[in-house]
Design goal:
Layout (H helix, E strand, L loop, with lengths): L1 H10 L3 H22 L11 H14 L5 H4 L3 H18 L4 H17 L5 H10 L11 H20 L3 H21 L7 H18 L5 H14 L2 H18 L5 H21 L5 H15 L14 H14 L1 H12 L11 H20 L53 H6 L3 H23 L13 H5 L3 H14 L10 H11 L5 H17 L4 H14 L6 H35 L15 H15 L5 H21 L8 H16 L5 H4 L6 H9 L21 H9 L2 H7 L1 H19 L25 E2 L2 E2 L2 H17 L41 H16 L5 H12 L3 H14 L1 H11 L1
Antiparallel strand pairs: 1-2
Amino acid sequence: MELRISESITTGSDSRLQTKKLLAVNYLFCIVLIEILPQVEFHLSACEQQVRYLLDSSFQQVQYKDPATLGPNNTNSLVVAETYAEVIGVLSETHFTQIHKQFMGILTELKKDSSATVAHNLISLLMAMKFVKIKTNQVDDFEMGIKFLDDLGSFLLEVKDKDVKHAVAGLLVEILLPVAAQIKREANIPALIAFVGKLYGPTSELASKKQHKLAAYPLLTCLLCVSQRQFFLSNWVPFLNNTLANLKNRDSRISRVALESLYRLLWVYMIRNNCDGNSATRTRLESICGSLFPKGNRGIVPRDAPLNIFVKIIHFIAQQKLDFAFKDVIFDLLACNRSQRSLYPERMNIGIRALMVIADGLQQKDEPPAMPKSMGIIADGLQQKDEPPAMPKSMGPSASGTMQRLKKKTYITRPLTVDIARSIGLDQYYIPCRKAFDSILRILDTQVCRPLMMTAVQRGKEPEELLGGEVKPKLDLFRTCVAAIPRLLPEPMTYTELIDILTRTTVHVDEELRTMAGNTLQNMLGEFPEWREQIIIAEITLLHNQLTDFYPAVLDEALRLLHQMVVTWKSAALQEKKKEQEKDSNSFENSHTAPPLYVLNYASVLHAVEGLALCMLCQIRPQPRKIAVSMLKEVKQIISILALDNADVPVITVLDEATPYVVRKYIEHIPLYERMSWNLDFASVCDKVAAIDTDVCLVNSDKGNEYLQWDPWACALSGYAERRHLISRCPSAVANAWPTLFNKLMAVNAYVDPSNPQNENRASLLRGSKSKGSSVCGEALSQEGCLSLWQKYLVLCCAFAPSPHSSNSLISRSFSPTSSMETDVMRSVSSSLRTASRISSTATLSQLFTKTAAMLRWENMIDIRDSVVLGIGSLNAVAFETFLEDLNQRGILRDAMEKKVRF
């Protein structure tokens, strides 16, 4: 294929397109080679000829090509050259000597070249070797690798061209960094000692010159990292002092190189060489930490450096000097010893992350951390001549992506308790850190959580404006805090306060923060069975108090999170039940222990979820209705798994059983034969009925079909709320639904009430279809949508209206005002809802009656008045008598009788 494409290029219909195809073929060819060449070591003798061909092709493909000739394909050509360099790197595992020999042969030929492109050719050749690996597990292999390094070192000393010299230095760093990371103790190999001695002095001189500093600094670091212990301790102090001074360099690249060098040198000093004397070590560490985290400073040095580097530095220190790492560094970063609390976002972020990493390593009994194998800023040394300086980046393979297979660290998410902290030796440091964490969370809640909730943000501002500037580092700190929970818990903050903060964060403007808070709450649901009640109630309270129907996208997201929480609860309950069954099967005695006290409240919490789901069934959009139905199904399964004796009948069970009756009696908008062909389960009927549109043109009072003007789904909800169904069998869910239904009705009523000046120009609000400008967070709810919601809320509010004498008792709807109360209706509503905003039933009933009575007088609003009639027809029996008294006091009954006599 390559030959055919090459021929087509020479005949050339469209050379650029053909060149692009050829590059694509070569790229795919390299991807395949990178995957299969590691198997060559098992077939060395049989593959010699093919390996020789591949090496020849690879060195040919990496040769310099004039960008002017390649045109728009220049970038693709560089990518292909890098993938061929990866092929050479893979082959270096089995054919290192052959690659070394071939490289030196090409290098010798290029030295004789005097053309203008010789520097470019040399740099391209050097870049081809950046993935070459030196084996250190066998002395012979190691010495062969050192011989290659020595040849490169000789070339570095003799070459005069600045760019080529920098490229050689960069290549040496690329190869030496993995070697330094593999040396667990000092390498007592004469060839390596000689190599370090040969290059250290000249490289130190280069590092002192401004034009060579960026290239020489990393190389000097690598030479120290592979040197013997005595050589390191003798030479690293002057270099350390120079490095600390360069941390404040105005050139951000130099300060970044200094930081990269520092934390590699510190790894060698602390982990490989085990420090030196106590006083000397403390002096060095105080100097290092004082430069990175200046006392009395709000920031870190250098600014804008990746925080993970600082975290690793503290982690390295903690390997040998745990007390110093906490008392002198982490305590200062977290402001543990300061009475006046202020935020220092970057410093606190580093402190929390360092605490988590150290505790995790101690608890998992990890090996000491490995030395970082890549140094970002040295990318400048290996770029093509005359190219602009590259930004700091990892020099790991970036073309194919096939060699970047990193073993991801798994961190513990279970809470770090005081007992665990004591067992790993952190007890004296842990409590001050938890107290500092408490203060940090409270300040963040005040400064970047509450003001940036999607229900509180200022209109007209984009998220970039809200989340930029000084807010950004605070948000980064907040993300770290949320991610640390529940592993790290604040002290003395109560768990209810913590849950409230996290719940508010689930509606934050920042999407990443919202997701993290939701995940944290779900983790807590699994880890803390005794907290499940409060977590669910907090989310329901948020939906009840702050997320109105004018936030449709936010409302949907919060509902999805609540659904995920319920699913997480079900999964945790299944696992706990399985463990209990295994424990019972292994025990000799069949002793059944009483469940914990918090389990007794589970029924009330689950009924609170059902109550919210009943409210969401009024939604005009299908998505929240589907989520509500799914939540009801999950609640039913949880009740079954937990075998809760104090629970009412699951709402979804009642709805499913009532569906055939409701379809026959209440849905007259569709012919009976068609209705009987439906799947008569609640979920299916909900989708079908809610999609039916009303047509007021079909209404004819002479034919007795006034019901056609009513919303079909509102009629269905009225049927489900009959005496025999929800009210008598699910009293707790109904009682939980009432406050939310009433609040939502009152919120929507403002956009329906014709006494509102904004609505006075509408002759018929029910027939109005223009959009009303009530948008929040870029979303809008139309006037028609408000009316549709209002109709359904009114029906269920009337149906679920509680007794004016007791907020916790409901009587089944009946047209007989003297019907007796049933015992199951007298059950206590969720005790956990005492934390939620409860509304006096007497006050709310009075407001409801006031609104409905006023609407009955709207002579010119017949359609709205008829909807009120539908709602009153659904009124609960215990409230119906009170409503009649209210109508009588207002004179509405008297007026109606007078009109009847008149006509």
